[in-house]
Amino acid sequence: MLRAFKTAAPRAQLMRASLRTKQPMLTQRFLRVSTVRSLATGTDTFLQGNNSNYIDEMYDAWRQDPTSVHASWNAYFKNIESDNVPPSQAFQAPPTIGVPTVAGGAAGFVPGSNPMSEDVVTHLKVQLLVRAYQVRGHQKAKIDPLDISFGENSVIPKELTLDYYGFTDADLNKQITLGPGILPRFAEGGKKSLSLREIINNCEKLYCSSYGVEYVHIPSKEQCDWLRERIEIPIPFQYSPDQKRQILDRVIWACSFESFLATKFPNDKRFGLEGAEAVVPGMKALIDTSVEFGVEDVVIGMPHRGRLNMLSNVVRKPNESIFSEFTGSKEFDEGSGDVKYHLGMNYARPTTSGKHVNLSLVANPSHLEAEDGVVLGKTRAIQQYKSDIGEYKKAMPILLHGDAAFAGQGVVYETMGFAHLPAYSTGGTIHIIVNNQIGFTTDPRFARSTLYPSDIAKASNSPIFHVNADDVEACIFVFNLAAEWRATFHSDVIIDLVGYRKHGHNETDQPSFTQPLMYQKIAEKKSVLEYYSNQLVKEGTFTAEDVEEHKKWVWGMLEESFNKSKEYIPTSREWLTTPWEDFKSPKELATEVLPHLPTAVDEEILKNIGNAISEAPEGFEVHRNLKRILNTRKKTVETGEGIDWATGEALAFGSLALEGYHVRVSGQDVERGTFSQRHAVLHDQKSESTYTPLNNLSEDQGAFAISNSSLSEYGVLGFEYGYSLTSPDALVQWEAQFGDFANTGQVVIDQFIAAAESKWKQRSGLVVSLPHGYDGQGPEHSSGRIERYLQLCNEDQRFFPSPKKLERQHQDANLQIAYPTTPANLFHLLRRQMHRQFRKPLIIFFSKSLLRHPLARSNLSEFTNDSHFQWIIEDVEYGQAIAPKEEIKRVVLCSGQVYTALHRKRAAIEDKNTAFIKIEQLHPFPFAQLRDALQEHTSLEDLVWCQEEPLNMGSYSYVAPRIATVLAETENHKGLNLRYAGRDPSASVAAGSKAMHVAEEEAFLSDVFQE
Questions:
Q1: Do 603-862 and 872-1008 fold alike per CATH?
Q2: Which of 353, 89, 357 is nearest to 246 (CA)?
Q3: What's the CATH architecture for 241-569?
Q4: Is the dihedral of CA 295, 296, 301, 302 positive or negative?
Q5: pLDDT tens digits, residue range 671-697?
Q6: Residue 36: what pLDDT?
Q7: For residues 848 and 419, what is the distance between their CA atoms, to the nearest angstrom?
Q8: CA distance 577 to 345
């Protein structure tokens, strides 16, 4: 400590030089080290980060107007800049600066010798006190309506006490100059100073009232100053009588809706919002404010709690529709449907200013936070179609969370990580934590390791606003501030609305089993409507009669809707997150026989695409090894022979883009391709520039976007699913780095991709691309888990489809599962996605080894003329390397890359009596195609299913009963049994050693040919 003062003279020289050259960093460093840290050991943490430059600001203010700072600082700065003051005297230690006493803190200082500097010390201590309120004030704020978790009943930070700074009651009347670091906005009214008492009272009001703010963790000084300008003002918010009337109306509707449901349906679960009803007027204010900033579309995701209230009062779903769902009316004329508090909705709602906003509430399952990525992806797609990428003014996502879920579900962190990624940013998400202070029956102490559920948001530099759900006007202020933040900085913002659950986890629960004390307090609570109406009556804005009259009117409106609900006939549109206007619904397509799909493309167009994807702009330096790959790619398309997998895929993407479709591909390392196969984005070897050939095919092409994702599956897969919902005219593909990595996105696969159309009538054409194939790379790089996807499929294995059902196999399917083995078949499969009159999710498994295998090559003729996707591919060597079809004794059915091993084995043993049939599409199953193919094998004696996967995995359990159904429809093979050849059952997906992998493969190949 003393060493700092011994070096004061040379530091003063630095100080003087810095002031003359206006280098504030040296000023800041000198004052922090030699003055502040010596003054208040243990408190210098308050000057770290973006606020450590208060003294720089004070110096800048002094240079403009010496009277704008305290007289002691005026003298100090004059001495520093005076040439008459020797460097050794430029800094004089204030009388109270010295070695701290044993007590520490800012109170125990040994007196010095310069009486003129005592005010400097006081000013610095007050500055630290104000800083403490900015940093720690939220911990003292009255944000908990139950007074059990946060605020006054908690431990008050010592930095917010007078004793910490050595202040006594006698100091409370001292006048403190306002300015940088001490409530500068209060000085704008002409006041130059406030007493210490007034400063503390104002800090208590600003930082410790019904809301608390966390923002000092944000590294941007601009953003922190922006918040201070809106928080540190004498009256942060004040509403006119008309505004209060609107707030009251919204509170009455929110509270009356919950009470009405409780009265009419006392035995039904509804996951009501009681205890946090203020979120409804808050949301409506947020949306109104955002619309004034230019927002046209708002996409909302939320859990089940409060969803019905949100549907009714924010999204404007007809109340008679909601009530009809309670009475048990049949909600869906097809599909399974879902419980009412999982359903979505879209609606164009007018705002208070007369504008309209499109609101979309995304349907979601009970898997909390699963919809986060879906909401962001859907928002991003809207921005894409509205040319809003980069501006982010027209579409905005809002996510509501439970406190336990926000802190506990990893997908929250995954999706918050998208905030500023070029291909995933949505220009800021407004997160609203409806903080019930409990997770089902789990106390927060056991649900998270931090004080607040929102603490995770600090990692994304988001401001966090905590607010008491009982103070509706404070809630409106916070929601509006969040809307303004998002509009200004296009980054995430968190609202932690602290309330409670009046009825426990649901209305049939008994929460007192596990939270007796909490629910004793809740039983004594008044509703937010009572608190607010009493406040308005007390202040004279309205009379008690006014309030009661409006409550009766709202209740009467609810009664009217309830009576209408008995005859209400719902429409499918009510549950749709996205309606897809002008695109035929499944019901409209139900009786249509779809024509043969024209997925082939003219040869000239394909050659133009092949040329474009093989070249870079002039002056662009491509890696020398990549040049060879691109030249080969160009040659194969020009000659029409030997087109490989990546080229076939690029031809599909390019042809769709030229037809005006938007193509988006994302996933980990998709730009180059995990296996160095795609090279969709070229990198200049001498600069940072990149070039995407498929986005440079034509001036009027559809947008082609391909981007590496963050290392996330759950979040990114949800994002791409959400993206696919916005328009049927986009081919959206997500690709896993390895197929089994989709495991961590299983919730999205199970709850959304496989079931959304059945549950919510929500259609999607998302393509999920999964590398799959046993190459001896161990358990985690072999299997994409085909069996899991096949288990999700809805086609009945027991019955051979009727001719009518055969025509509708794809229309009636919930998923398409394919494992193509040729580039041409992949080409047609991708194009088929966009050329049909309906959309179904497509799961593509692709082999790593087939990316470059000579057997996995296609000629250009397979992309043109009358070519199309082949559900099965029969052996091409009938009557050549093997016997004619009618003489074949054994047929091996298989799917995917195992075909190459079978082919190699058959050639090695010179077997002439075995033929292979590759099943390229597993679901819908090729019942008719396989029946017709087997019919032609009149001498068939042995039918084998061969797979690489263990018996308890792979496709066998799915195909076996279906093949049996097919055999029963043949003329000659009704009694034929299917034989299995593959790996034995296993707990692990694959062998961990290459030698064991090879031995297992040889064993099942020998079994196929019965060696």
A1: yes
A2: 353
A3: 3-Layer(aba) Sandwich (3.40)
A4: positive
A5: 999 999 999 999 999 998 999 999 999
A6: 36
A7: 32
A8: 5
